[in-house]
Amino acid sequence: MQLKELTNYLNSYLEIDKVNDTCFNGLQIEGKQEIKKIAFAVDACLDSFEHAIATQADILIVHHGQFWEFTNPSITTWNKKRIAKLLEHNISLYAAHLPLDRHKEVGNNAQLIKLLDGNIDRPFYIKKGTNIGWVGKLNKKQKLTDIANTLNKKLETECIVVPFGDQTIETISVVSGGGGYGGFWNSLKEDVDLYLTGDSADIFQTAKDAQINVIFAGHYATETVGLKALAQHLHEQFNVETEFISLPTGL
């Protein structure tokens, strides 16, 4: 398949123009035009670039891209080292940040709900007119400890559990990665049993007083599921070879 065909499909499928983001979503670095293999990684970094080269990928799709509104775009120092790797091997770089978080099928938040045997119930955490996360409803009520164990096993993570609500869970608000305080305060308004996110935040006393459960499952871990789902989707859609590059950070 051709690079333009792939990027046009991704732009449309992920609806990258429907969300305001600090990441410049879409094709960030253009490489070879013929795509035979697609690699996926959470982060644009030297490690993921080198793995993409080693696996002979033609394009690398990442969640955390190279170019952001708050970073200096000058191609110098560490920026130059990174980009030179891709240019030297003619590998393209495509980034999907919030569009991948919020996607209703392959998105991180949708996939976390699916992983816990639930379904999307309604949009959650509206920012600038667009939802970032989802509220999900489990097909069968589960114990909080069982949910944490499932996440630990399937995401290969170590959850931090703040257990101040009902220990039997049915509704979950989900924002992968850095949902933090914003996702937490929105969860209080949604009256859910559990707020699931990646990064930890100092919400202990408020969660206790509000009697809500919170699970911090790790920024990296909660943002692997969308890329894996997207890899499977593109493989089925285009019969193209795909590979996920695992580079856990412990964060």
Gist?
This protein has 251 residues and is an alpha/beta fold.
Structure characterization notes:
By secondary structure, this protein is α/β, with parallel strands linked by helices. The model has no long low-confidence stretch (mean pLDDT 97). It has two domains: 3-99 and 224-244, Udp-n-acetylmuramoylalanyl-d-glutamate--2,6- Diaminopimelate Ligase, Chain: A, domain 1 (3-Layer(aba) Sandwich), CATH 3.40.1390.30; 101-222, 3-Layer(aba) Sandwich (Udp-n-acetylmuramoylalanyl-d-glutamate--2,6- Diaminopimelate Ligase, Chain: A, domain 1), CATH 3.40.1390.30. It has helices spanning 3-13, 46-54, 77-89, 98-102, 108-115, 144-155, 180-190, 204-210, 219-222, 225-238; strands spanning 26-29, 37-43, 59-64, 92-95, 118-127, 130-143, 160-163, 168-175, 194-197, 213-216, 241-244. The strands form two sheets. It has a six-stranded mixed sheet, sandwiched between helices. The chain has a five-stranded mixed sheet with strand order 1-4-3-2-11, with helices on both faces. It contains ten helices and eleven strands.
Write the layout of secondary structure elements.
Layout: H1 3-13, E1 26-29, E2 37-43, H2 46-54, E3 59-64, H3 77-89, E4 92-95, H4 98-102, H5 108-115, E5 118-127, E6 130-143, H6 144-155, E7 160-163, E8 168-175, H7 180-190, E9 194-197, H8 204-210, E10 213-216, H9 219-222, H10 225-238, E11 241-244
Parallel strand pairs: 2-3, 2-11, 3-4, 8-9, 9-10
Antiparallel strand pairs: 1-4, 5-6, 6-8, 7-10
Helix pairs in contact: 2-3, 5-10
